Automatic annotation (TrEMBL):
GO MF term (any one): carbohydrate derivative binding
Protein name: UPF0309 protein GCM10010269_32830
Domain SIS: 36-219
Transmembrane segments: none
Source taxon at top rank: Bacteria
GO BP term (any one): carbohydrate derivative metabolic process
Family (UniProt): Belongs to the UPF0309 family.
Family annotation (HAMAP family): UPF0309 (MF_01240)
Stored PANTHER family: PHOSPHOHEPTOSE ISOMERASE (PTHR30390:SF7), SEDOHEPTULOSE 7-PHOSPHATE ISOMERASE / DNAA INITIATOR-ASSOCIATING FACTOR FOR REPLICATION INITIATION (PTHR30390)
Length: 251
């Protein structure tokens, strides 16, 4: 099979997944966007967390042109990306009990805020505890995960539960267990993951919904503009000044 055919197969698989989440997760996307809009309107703050490659989707909605300025990254040292050496340390930290609670208890999160937790499998101690402890603090949680993992794998949290079990809204990415869309007789393992494409699209759909919900209430959505267009820096400066007490990545 030619490389071009494999590329086409991957695009087809990714498009099919996007169509599924568009059709099957519409109500959940609306609920998540409404939750964020409610939080903004009530004076709350917005945070996003993800570990390993799940952090990519969380980072994509923070300090983003065309995105909500109030989205802040909740970072856990060592698990945000593959820049930590060795990279396997990040995977190990995801399984450490108590880490999420320690991070939350020293973070700016407080009752009335909203937290997006991204975890493809939703099985590791860190994302499960992050959602569980955040809700105990009065924070509303949106979970972005593949629900299929809860039926095909076992939890690594002491409670035996998954991320999906501790969320106010769950967005199911529909990604198959193993996160690989292609197979080939001459390749010994499945390959071509699509979770980042789908999860990022899901979250951008949520952000769009939140912006529209705020506008419908007569509230100007606190959106950022590209710094590479004329007037972008001035616009962003105004937004950041107006919401300076709810933006933590600028301090």
């Amino acid at each position: 099979m030619s490389d071009r055919k494999l590329a086409a197969q991957f695009f087809d698989a990714a498009v099919a997944l996007l169509q599924r989440v568009r059709n099957e997760e519409a109500e959940a996307v609306d609920a998540a966007g409404t939750l964020l809009a409610d939080t903004v309107a009530a004076g709350g703050r917005l945070f996003a967390f993800g570990a390993g490659h799940s952090s990519l989707a969380a980072q994509d909605v923070v300090y983003r042109a065309g995105g909500l300025a109030l989205m802040n990254l909740l970072a856990v040292p060592g698990v945000v990306g593959v820049d930590v050496v060795p990279a396997t340390l990040g995977s190990a930290l995801e399984r450490v009990d108590g880490l999420a609670s320690a991070v939350l208890d020293t973070s700016p999160l407080r009752a009335g805020d909203a937290l997006v937790v991204v975890s493809l499998s939703g099985r590791n101690a860190l994302p499960v505890e992050m959602a569980l402890h955040a809700r105990s603090l009065g924070v509303q949680v949106i979970g972005v995960t593949s629900v299929a993992y809860a039926t095909r794998t076992t939890s690594r949290h002491a409670t035996g539960t998954f991320l999906k079990d501790h969320c106010d809204v769950v967005l199911d990415s529909k990604i198959a267990v193993g996160d690989a869309e292609l197979t080939l007789d001459t390749v010994p393992a499945p390959f071509a993951p699509a979770s980042t494409v789908v999860t990022s699209a899901l979250l951008q759909a949520v952000m769009a919904t939140a912006a529209g919900a705020l506008a419908e209430r007569g509230i100007e959505p606190p959106l950022l503009r590209s710094g590479n267009v004329d007037g972008g820096h001035d616009w962003n400066g105004r937004i950041m000044e107006e919401y300076r007490d709810r933006i933590f990545y600028r301090h």
